[in-house]
Fold HTH CENPB-type domain-containing protein.
Amino acid sequence: MAQKPKPTTKTLTLEERVEVIKLSDKGLSSRALATQFGVGRTQIQNCVKRKAEVLSDFENNAPCNRKRKLRKTGNEAVNDKCWDWCLDAIARQVPISGPMIQEKALQIARVVGNEEFKASNGWLESFLKRNNLTFGKQCGESGGVDTNTVDNWIDRLPEICEGYAERDIFNVDETGYFYKATTDKTFFRKGQKCAGGKKSKERLTVMLCSNMTGDERERPMVIHRSAKPRCFKNIKTQNLPVIYNSNRKSWMTAALFEDWVRKFDRKMKAQGRRVLLFLDNATVHPKLTGLTNVKLQFFPPNTTSVLQPLDQGIIQALKLKVRRKQLQFIMDEMDKDKTSSGPDLIKNVTVLDAIYWLAAAWRELENSTFSKCFRKAGFPWAVTPTDADAINDAAEGNVADDSGVGLNALSQEVFGCDFSDVADIDADLTVCESRQAEFYLTVTEPVPTSSPPPQAECDSSESETEDVPESRLPTFQESRDAIALLRRVALHAGSTAMLNFVMGCSDELSSINAKNMRQKKLGDYFSVSAPKSQE
């Protein structure tokens, strides 16, 4: 008599295990869950017992079709460091191949002292499968984006954001900005670094963070090469409308980012809020521990061009506004100097000018721009469906018609492109250190694990090389005269908004002067009343 074939044992996928945990938390018994999913009670109980591990895998974008727990092979250190290297390559749009991964793994194995490791084809196959990696052709910024990964992520978003209000969901990202861009210093593409020479003096890295509703925008962080540019004379950096940092390459570092995140965490704790912060897998975005009120949620690798809200039109809208202010500055300078051309006049732009433009443009963006771009990135509850048609308007930056001021013609002269394209001048500028150089490490060189501390390797030579006039602090009377002049302009133009603003400035100036006078009198009092020392 023929024996009956043994029934096949079903193994739950990661996605199914997450669903089991959710239903278990709602009170369903192990027996009921086993029946519903067609598995034994033991598998259900083990799943619930390993709840923290399962949810951690799910939140860290492990393949949702993974069925079994990964076995310990003794190569975990090599696998982890090799995966970090792959993430960095993907984030930088650097093409990598199987042999490259194998060579990198062998190199890491020698560094960590794993002499028995063999980067065989079998290991490579397991590594790719374990990390859900597939090879494909890159094409531009969105090259290699896996539509299945994107669709799966969007399906998971409601679960990831469960328990967080719209105002408590944030996104943070960096972008590059050439504040002295001219026709021959523009259009950098992914993989083209600007690390030294004159260009590095004219570039900034800007970090932006906002919540979904757009009503909470953190102060932008601006990173430049000089710790104290000449244009900062008599100005305290903590009084700037941005968070100012510096290092030799004007790049974001892991240390700078960690410092910002921990301060943001303390701020949320003081407000009694728990927030969700979405970010990409860049090398300078470490997985931090010890955060109490901020949960870091990383996007799947190589998907931020599609899934990151700030990349769906917010950064472009910001840059359009900044470039408009820059061009307006040039036009004003042209009125004062009738002989110089646009590229010559733009040399007068300082880091301080760029900071003011960035801060003002960030403040001027409409709240609806943020909610629409969050929706475009897959957050379906960000705006109502009737607003969906306006998403493309957000990507265009709501820039008004420029025919009255001739911005297109001036943009062609200064930037070599139409004003509508000017936001893309530095769209793909490198904003942080890449670890691709590690591929050429020798066996005696350790793999770097951290970035230099904030303000490391600052370059203070700008004040000696950049021809920028030093700023003199105006007197109180000069400030009053300037306000009086602005008041006359507002009255002549019939602008109530400008008049109210100028009057507010007048009141604030009087308060500042009164405070300074009190401090001066107090200082005089102590200097006069201090007892004379006995000889």
